[in-house]
């Protein structure tokens, strides 16, 4: 292969696409505008920097679609998932990572690969020739977004992603808080005590909700409208939907026993998850927010155990752009009007680190095959990767298309299995067994 593959964006999808294509023998150039051109959310110039949560979510490959996607990426020698495994933190059955060493390791793996080079400049037009993958994610630069919108003839859809705050561990009052994973989940003591819990009485909770609703919020810019993805709602938006919403969401008190007061069941619980290997930083789980910084400090210090908390990072909000992929992309992830350009990652309408990396993995393999003059067979829709790409490139209703996490609802049914909640365990195991066999065959 003499023609190079150019990838715009060095996030999860772009990094994985570059790795997969390079491993297939393609010469790859990653065009990453950072650190020359900064974004609101990024702190470094590293590739695959994690800007929101540090979790890749469930690692259960038998009963969870996200865990199955982990399994498929491992089977394909994915650089993102393999690096995540090396920098894993205790997270009670989830795959959480030490974010800075993770990004540094991905960057080292890619920059030391003989088939990969990195160019730090902003690409602001759609190339007319050559093989390209656009994997610019939720923070696609304004000029490139305009070029995409001009080519597709439609405004890019948008919603808003919010970033959760991070607290210094030594500022948390452990006479009120305690360490425990919900339902003591995990095979080791570290896993079973992976989360830090702050309990609330009914009075605490009601006061917290009042303060949350009254807090000053970040104003939208002129012309912006807020269309939130339900999996990443700011906590104040959840609270606006009903005072009990948070108590049945990120603040649910189930599966936990307060050792300080074992006879008293908390009315609500705020959970924090370790954010680095040293255990010096914890992020507040599910507490994405668009409150102004001063308001965040006032509101979060109402949480028992966080009265004297110091924050390494406060929450924020940023615009997230994605394509109407069912209308614009073909089943090979190519832009129908410019088939020399593929899209990958969140910009295609998948949501989450894992899903973004998986779409990068597929785009990289498809592009490398095309450069060799070959055509890979379609990925079976029975696999997690195949279910996702089938959904975004035609399975979803284009009129109501919104970002989607991987879930078993995207998979073709397995005949003869019982529906409903009672049959769910057997059904999910059948989905994952079938997917593993079909993914292994496709890779072969």
Automatic annotation (TrEMBL):
Domain (MnmG N-terminal) ranges: 5-374
First-tier enzyme category under EC: transferase
Keywords recorded for this protein, A-Z: Cytoplasm, FAD, Flavoprotein, Methyltransferase, NAD, NADP, Transferase, tRNA processing
SUPFAM superfamilies in the record: FAD/NAD(P)-binding domain
A single GO molecular function term of this UniProt record: tRNA (uracil(54)-C5)-methyltransferase activity, 5,10-methylenetetrahydrofolate-dependent
Presence of the UniProt keyword tRNA processing in the record: yes
EC number, as in UniProt: 2.1.1.74
Cell compartment(s), UniProt: Cytoplasm
Protein name in UniProt: Methylenetetrahydrofolate--tRNA-(uracil-5-)-methyltransferase TrmFO
């Amino acid at each position: 292969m003499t023609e190079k593959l150019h990838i715009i964006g060095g996030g999860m999808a772009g990094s994985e696409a570059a790795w997969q294509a390079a491993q297939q023998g393609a010469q790859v150039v990653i065009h990453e505008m950072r650190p020359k051109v900064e974004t609101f959310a990024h702190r470094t110039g590293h590739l695959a920097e994690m800007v929101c949560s540090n979790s890749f979510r469930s690692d259960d490959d038998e009963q969870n679609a996200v865990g199955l996607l982990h399994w498929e990426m491992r089977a394909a020698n994915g650089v993102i998932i393999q690096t995540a495994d090396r920098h894993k933190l205790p997270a009670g059955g989830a795959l959480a990572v030490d974010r800075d060493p993770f990004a540094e390791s991905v960057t080292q793996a890619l920059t030391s690969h003989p088939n990969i080079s990195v160019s730090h400049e902003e690409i602001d037009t759609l190339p007319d020739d050559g093989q390209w993958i656009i994997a610019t994610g939720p923070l696609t630069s304004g000029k490139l977004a305009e070029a995409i919108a001009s080519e597709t003839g439609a405004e890019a859809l948008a919603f808003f992603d919010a970033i959760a705050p991070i607290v210094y561990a030594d500022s948390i009052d452990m006479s009120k808080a305690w360490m425990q994973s919900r339902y003591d989940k995990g095979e080791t003591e570290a896993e079973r005590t992976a989360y830090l819990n702050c309990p609330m009485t009914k009075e605490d909770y009601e006061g917290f909700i009042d303060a949350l609703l009254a807090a000053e919020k970040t104003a939208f810019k002129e012309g912006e409208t807020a269309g939130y993805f339900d999996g990443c709602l700011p906590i104040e938006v959840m609270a606006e939907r009903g005072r009990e919403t948070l108590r049945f969401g990120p603040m649910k008190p189930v599966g936990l026993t307060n050792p300080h007061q074992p006879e008293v069941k908390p009315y609500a619980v705020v959970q924090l998850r370790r954010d680095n290997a040293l255990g010096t930083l914890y992020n507040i789980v599910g507490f994405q927010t668009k409150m102004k910084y001063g308001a965040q400090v006032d509101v979060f210090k109402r949480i028992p155990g966080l009265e004297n908390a110091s924050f390494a990072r406060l929450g924020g909000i940023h615009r997230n752009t994605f394509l109407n992929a069912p209308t614009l992309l073909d089943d090979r992830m190519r832009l129908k009007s410019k088939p020399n350009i593929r899209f990958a990652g969140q910009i295609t309408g998948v949501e989450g680190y894992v899903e973004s990396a998986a779409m990068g993995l597929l785009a990289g393999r498809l592009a490398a095959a095309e450069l060799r003059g070959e055509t890979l067979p379609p990925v079976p829709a029975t696999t997690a990767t195949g279910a996702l790409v089938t959904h975004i490139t035609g399975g979803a209703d284009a009129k109501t298309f919104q970002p989607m996490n991987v879930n078993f609802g995207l998979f073709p049914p397995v005949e003869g299995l019982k529906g409903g909640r009672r049959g769910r365990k057997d059904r999910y195991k059948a989905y994952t067994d079938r997917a593993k066999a079909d993914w292994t065959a496709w890779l072969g």
